[in-house]
Amino acid sequence: MTFTKLRIDSKKLERAAYVLKAVAHPTRIGIIDLLDQRTELSVTELCDLLQCEQSLISHHLINMRDKGLLGTRRDGKNIYYFLVDKTITNIIECINGCEQF
Amino acid sequence: MTFTKLRIDSKKLERAAYVLKAVAHPTRIGIIDLLDQRTELSVTELCDLLQCEQSLISHHLINMRDKGLLGTRRDGKNIYYFLVDKTITNIIECINGCEQF
DNA sequence: TAGTCACATGAACACATGTTCATATATTTG
DNA sequence: CAAATATATGAACATGTGTTCATGTGACTA
Fold this sequence. Notes:
The structure is a homodimer of 101-residue chains.
Chain A: H1 10-23, H2 26-37, E1 41-42, H3 43-50, H4 54-66, E2 70-75, E3 78-83, H5 89-97
Antiparallel strand pairs in A: 1-3, 2-3
The first copy, chain A, binds a DNA duplex (30 and 30 nucleotides) through α4.
């Protein structure tokens, strides 16, 4: 008989769920997909590309930044957002890779 | 100059977010981790392993089943849950793989 | 058939989340 | 300095989510 036990401690469970929640939204996945292609993009660029209101995008961006997914850089009037860790993109590839979805 | 465009259509964005939401919870990640080790487990076994109330686990399981992540099989009084697509586990590995988290 | 075990269900609640709108702040430009 | 541009903020609201509790249902057992 084989023993089965949770291999992930509760801290890691919480953390993983926290990160996944930050990703689990159509607009936010779109942001990640775009930032995966272009190292950095301004808020206006993201608004245009995603056809989305400035305020809404801003809320999403700040949300992702606060959770450690995105970083920012100011250049004049613009603020450029970028992926802190590009490997986050793998998550999206994983899902698109699952045949059933 | 390079063109940047959303590479994922909105249907896929919605779908990806939908699946990620189904995973993005500590208890549900725990369920996936356990089912990755043991092809199938009953509700009671999951309750014991996760130290969680039966009703709560049941809600989570049905939620994941309804979203296509889990399948069920009845054997006498027990109902056994299993992962429909084991590759979903990669998502969790992805996160634990990201250095920053 | 009555009792027990295993699981599902549904109401109710607190709490989190997504969105919109109006407005504030920072930076550049004229 | 005034106006314009780019972005952030915060209130308000609707909606979604996680949890608990009480109870229902199906299957085995004595």
